[in-house]
Amino acid sequence: MEVTLFKNALVIQNLDDFTVLKKRDVAVKGDKIVEVGTDLALKYKEKKVIDCTDKIVMPGNVCSHHHYYSALSRGMLVNAGVQNDFVQVLKEWWWRLDRALDEEALYYSSLICSIDAIGCGTTSCVDHHASPSFIEGSLETIAKGMEEIGIRGLTCYEVTDRNGGMDEVRLGVNENVAFARSVDKKRSSGENVLVEAMIGAHAPFTLPNKALELMSEATETTQRSIHLHVAEDKYDTVHSHHLYHQDIMERLDRFNLLNEKTLLVHGLWLNEKEIELMNERKSFLAHNPRSNMNNNVGYFKNLTKVKNLVLGTDGCGGNMFEEIKLAFFKHKDQGGAWWPTDFVEVLNRGNRLLELYFKAKFGSVAAGCKADLVVLDYNSPTPLVNDNGASHIVWGISSNAVESVMVDGKMVMENRTFGFDVKEIYAKAREAAKRVWQKVDTISPH
Predict the structure, then answer these.
(1) Coil, strand or helix: which one is 364?
(2) To bridge 122 with a disulfide, which of 28, 61, 204, 277 should be the other Cys (CB 3.0-4.6 Å)?
(3) Strand 402-407 to strand 410-413: parallel, antiparallel, or no bridges (unpaired)?
(4) Contact of 154 with 310, CB cutoff 8 Å
């Protein structure tokens, strides 16, 4: 088997403690890194050499919460009503868009999101999907797009009762279970799995107790955990108190939905008692600063209290070099105490989530780790060393520096070029987008 050798690079080996190694070779065989050292070209005879002189090799970024279904919403030209609060934003915009999606539109959404993410140095995306008019088979469609482009991912269907009551809930749960079983079948037959499954749901305010019960059963059946929005807006918290007389976290815990593989999202309006419970259960929470600003839902001031905080975009693209900057500067704008090292640690923690689902080592340029790597052409004006590496990511390194990307040991973008016709895909996506927008205009928000 041929080895891919990244030669003579400045290696950012680990983002958690920011270990920087100068003039190192990185050898990749199959889907794993086999060695990091010097003069490795002499050791490996059959090899592809990628010259990384004056360049950086680092672990790929993880987008720990994305909405692939939002890809065709960019610049969406539709008639929309007043959007004075978060629920109106959902009803007038996002819930009309997701009802307009069909199989073709979803397929191109997956292709576009995957291409955009890889181009920005993101090697894994954790997707959270909704398409009420196309539920059955929707996750296979998303996975197909991810696999064709070559990005690693997790996906799930957003269980909700907002359109069709419990019938819609059951369809959503069934889709999550069906995709998880499909993944298990691939793995048991020895196939490589690039896209894993979770049990998705929209938010507690569109989930009656019967829905939580069915989701709990699905987590037991599939041995996956939930991916769920919580307390993005104060309405979610008030709704839980009004109808169920419980905090959101207490309600989820009642149905055994909080554990070390659970991914919750937003959490702006969780109280300290809820955060303590979430931490006790070792659940992950994805922070999405750009989306929070866009939806005017407030700032997550308690983020420093979350032990397993990760970073996502909530569908605002897959550019994590950009998202981490927004996270840091918004935090400082709010008087927060964290510094670049803290936010780089949050970004890298997405790899811990991947490890739980893929049963492999991620997030480090070291022997035995999955070969999800990014080559950066970053011409630094100052020394880049262990003690200031995180500051370079927040203040300097951008997606413009991304030159090549490897996922699972395969070069998916090399010298800023993909191995397929990107222009053709984008042209077809534009046609799909126009058709979706026309359909959105026929859908009532009520």
Answers:
(1) strand
(2) 61
(3) antiparallel
(4) no
Q: Which of 97, 188, 95, 192 is nearest to 143 (CA)?
A: 192
The domain made up of 61-358 has a fold known as: TIM Barrel (3.20.20)
Every domain of the chain and the residues it spans: 3-60+361-413, 61-358
Residues in the chain: 446
β-strand partners of 3: 29, 47
Q: What is the DSSP string of 1-66?
A: -PEEEEEEEEEEEETTTTEEEEEEEEEEETTEEEEEESSGGGT-SSEEEEE-TT-EEEEPEEEEEE
Asked if 445 and 91 count as a contact pair (C-beta separation under 8 A), the reply is yes
Instruction: Confirm or reject CATH 2.30.40.10 for domain 3-60+361-413, answering yes or no.
Output: yes
First to last CA, the chain: 58
Helix (H/G/I), strand (E/B), else coil: 246: coil
Bridge partners (DSSP) listed for residue 154: 126, 196
User: What residues does 179 pair with on adjacent strands?
Assistant: none
C-alpha–C-alpha distance, residues 40 and 44, integer Å: 7
- Tell how far CA 324 is from the center of its chain: 13
Mean pLDDT by 10 residues, the chain (446 residues): 94 89 97 96 90 98 97 90 88 89 97 98 98 97 98 98 94 98 97 97 97 98 98 96 97 98 98 98 98 94 97 97 98 97 97 98 97 97 94 96 98 97 97 95 84
